[in-house]
Design brief:
about 180 residues, mainly alpha, 8 helices
């Protein structure tokens, strides 16, 4: 009886071990083609291009929101407007078409690498099916406006609380850096 139990237990352990090894093999890694299709149906590259468009209202609003974090005692309204113009000017230089095209290619390759590590082909196919449906398309189409509204309300909070945190730790940080006697 004990020998039969030991054999059964060994067989079960061996079977479980082998089945655990087989699970990753059964879960097919998604193809590059399907991941590019997923990016297309979710409009991922389109959203990246919109975010990096210096003429995008969201970019302008983020710049304005960032400038609001600078206290009025440190910058005049005229300086604020001029600083906004300068930032916008250099954003336009940075985010040119070549840059956006190169960035898009690089981001796509990184997306593929990351997605292949986390999703199976079945999961990618399910996402493609969902985002190709009417409900999925509706969500994708609403996402940029929702994110813009969210960022407009979130950025002032993020900027304000971050500046408060920086101001709280700055004296101690400056003292520690000064103690290094860096020349």
């Amino acid at each position: 009886m004990i020998i039969r139990f030991k054999k059964t237990a060994c067989a079960l352990m061996l079977g479980c071990s082998l089945s655990m090894l087989a699970v990753p093999a059964l879960a097919a890694k998604p193809s590059e083609k399907s991941l590019i299709e997923l990016m297309q149906v979710t409009k991922a590259n389109e959203q990246l291009k919109q975010l990096s468009d210096p003429n995008n209202t969201m970019m302008a609003q983020m710049v304005a929101s960032s400038l609001e974090g600078i206290p009025e005692s440190e910058i005049s309204e005229k300086q604020r407007r001029e600083l906004s113009k300068i930032i916008t000017k250099y954003n336009q230089k940075i985010f040119n078409q070549d840059y956006v095209a190169t960035l898009s290619q690089q981001v796509t390759q990184q997306y593929i690498k990351a997605a292949q590590q986390h999703f199976t082909q079945q999961e990618v196919d399910a996402q493609i099916a969902f985002y190709s449906s009417e409900v999925g398309k509706s969500i994708i189409n609403k996402q940029p406006a929702m994110m813009q509204d969210f960022m407009l309300t979130a950025m002032p909070i993020i900027n304000k609380t971050t500046m408060e945190q920086v101001q709280n730790v700055m004296p101690q940080m400056e003292a520690e850096i000064a103690a290094l006697n860096i020349k």
